[in-house]
Amino acid sequence: MIRIENLVKAFGAKRAVDGVSFAVERGEVLGFLGPNGAGKSTTMRMITGFFPPTSGRVSVGGHDVTESPLAAKRLIGYLPEAAPSYPEMTVHGFLAFAAAMRGLAGEARRKAIGRVVELCFLGSVLHQSIDTLSKGYRHRTCLAQALIHDPDVLILDEPTDGLDPNQKHEVRNLIRELGRTKAVVFSTHILEEVDAACSRAIIIDRGRIVANGTPAELRAMSAHAGAVTVHAAGASAEKLAALGRVEPVNGAFRITPADKGASGQLALAVVALAQREGWKLDALRTEEGQLDEVFRSITLPDTVKK
Ligand code: ADP
Ligand code: MG
C-alpha cells in the first residue's frame, strides 16, 4: 500500500531525509521511531504529498504521489504533527467540514461522522467548540478528521503526544485495531508504543534508517539479549566462566553467551552446573533485551555512547 524508494529531502545543504526506503502492506502497523530531528515528520510529509521529495519516489496504493496526487491522497488519512484545528468550530462542525472536503455529502456524510465519533469517543463533546476542549479531546477530534473517509492508509505523526496514560492506551488500541485492515505508519519516540501497537518498527536517525524489524528482532539487538542472570548461594564466577562472559549484577551473575541464539541451552547448562556444584538456586532469568538500550546505542553519536 505504501512504497517509498530512496527518498531524499534536502533543506539547503542539510539532508533531513537521506535515502529512506521501506514498504508497508495492508494489515501492518509500522512504528516510525527516532530522536527529535531525525526526519520522521519530513518523511511523513512527503508520503502525504504535503511537500515534494528532493529525489526518490513515493507511491500509495500504486499511485505515485507526485504524478497522481489526487488518487494517492484519496487513500490517505493524515494526522499532522501540530494538527491544525479551527478553534471556533464545534467538533461536529469541524468533522462535517472535513467530510465535505473529502467529497462526502448527505447520508454518507452523516454516517461517516457517526462512525468516527464512535471510534474516537467524541459523543459527549459533539457540540462544544474546539477551543473549549481538553487536549485529549482536541487531539481525538483531529484523529477523527484523519479517519473521516475511512482511508486505506493512515499516516499518524506522534498520535499519542500530549495525551495522559489512559488516553495513550486508548489511542494505541485504536491504532492496533485500525491496523488489521489498513496500512498504518505512526511516528513516536515512546518505545513502549512499539510493543503496544506495532507489527514492525523502523528506527531512523539523522535522516537514515538504522534498524528495521519486528519488536522482538529489535530487542534481540540489545547487548544483553540472550544473557542469563543467575542468583544462587555459593555460585562462583570462575565456574560460570566456562559458559560465557560473566559479570556481577546486584548480587547475581549475568552470563552472556558468545552465541546469542544459544540462550535456551545456556539456561539449562547453568541449572546443570548449579546441581553439580551444589549451589542453592534462587532465581534464573533469560534477558529478552531492552528496546531503549537498542534505541540509545544506535541513535546517539559515538562520543556519548557508554
Ligand atoms: P522529526 O519529526 O524526526 O523530529 P523532522 O522531520 O521534523 O524531524 O526534522 C528533520 C530535520 O529537518 C531537522 O533538523 C529539522 O530542523 C529540519 N527541517 C524540517 N523541516 C524543515 C524546513 N521546512 N526547513 C528547514 N529545515 C527543516
Ligand atoms: Mg516530528
Give your account of this protein's structure.
With 306 residues, the protein is an alpha/beta fold. It has eleven helices and 14 strands. It has helices spanning 40-47, 69-74, 91-101, 106-119, 135-147, 165-178, 192-197, 215-220, 237-240, 263-277, 291-299; strands at residues 2-11, 14-24, 28-33, 55-60, 63-64, 76-79, 153-157, 183-188, 200-205, 208-213, 228-233, 245-249, 252-256, 280-286. It binds adenosine-5'-diphosphate (ADP) and magnesium ion. Adenosine-5'-diphosphate binds at residues 11, 16, 34, 36-42. Magnesium ion binds at residues 40-41, 81, 157.
Summarize the structure.
With 306 residues, this protein is of the alpha/beta class.
Largest sheet: 6 strands, mixed
N-end to C-end Cα span: 40 Å
Low-confidence runs of at least 5 consecutive residues: none
Q: Count of DSSP helices?
A: 11
Structural class: alpha/beta
Order of helices and strands: EEEHEEHEHHHEHEHEEHEHEEHEH
Q: Can you count the beta strands? A: 14
Helix content: 25-40%
The radius of gyration is 24 Å
Principal-axes geometry comes out as elongated
Average pLDDT works out at 90
State which percent range the strand residues make up.
25-35%
